[in-house]
Amino acid sequence: MSDPVPISVLDLAPIADGTTAAEALRRSLELAQHVEKLGYRRFWLAEHHNMPGIASSATAIVIAHVAAGTSRIRVGAGGIMLPNHSPLVVAEQFGTLESLFPGRIDLGLGRAPGTDRETMLALRRDAVGAENDFPAHVQELRALLGPPSPGQRVHAVPGEGLAVPIWLLGSSGFSARLAAALGLPFAFASHFAPDYLLPALEVYRREFTPSASLDRPYAMAAINVVAADDERDAHRWFTSVQQQFINLRRGAPTPLPPPVDSMEGRWTDSERAMVHHTLRYAVVGAPDTVRTGLRAFLQLTDVDELQVTAHIFDQAARLRSFEIVADVLQ
Question: Could you give the CA distance from residue 292 to residue 307 in angstroms, rounded to a whole number?
Fold first, then answer.
């Protein structure tokens, strides 16, 4: 491609079956170091709780771990689930990160709790209805990271005046509309919410209002990509993601399962239809297939940046997958 679109990573520090969270965190750092060498722009980690297959629950700490082990790539949250936290705590955490790793930290904010109701209440006992307060909490957080106001009594130290870049994340039109109104960059979770991708991007671009931080819309979309040198190998690695989605929908989340040769007998017809629909923008295959699929997705969405996520059971295959993506896009 003559003018390559920047590519980034969305990582959940997946815990593979038979391994530990410590191993998952080590593998995430190894992946970040690998994609930094390949020219990826960002490495984001996502907040989820009470999930046996995800090690990035203490997201700010994992961001520090990855940023300390890299030198150039931007590291951030994709995202922090704001209903779980007070804006002041988030401002202090990301002010600290920005102080430690200046110019390399991104703060993506999500409106969902990233967990079940019982865990949400364990995280923040006054969280009932917090999703409705999301716009006000975003504004409060922006103020805490901005310059002090006359008479202001509560300050984020560190954080105040550091202007950590804030993104809004979404899987529907709500955050797209809010990002447009506030003049913020927007990232869409098309890796699990395909239905609202194009409407959300259209709303964001149509309603965007320039701000001090952004003079034009800037949109990023996440997509599942499993690439391998052999088409059959790629589809086999992808069965881990398919199994994990089924387990989650059955209400029994698990660590990332090992791949299988066939999904036959492992899902019902309705489950198969659900997985194919949810992951309909996934790109799986050998380099030529991946090149064609990613170009089609970029043409469909016209996003400014592409974010790739890949839960692959084998670490060497995972590293190779991101290498292939870089090769076919750059």
Answer: 16
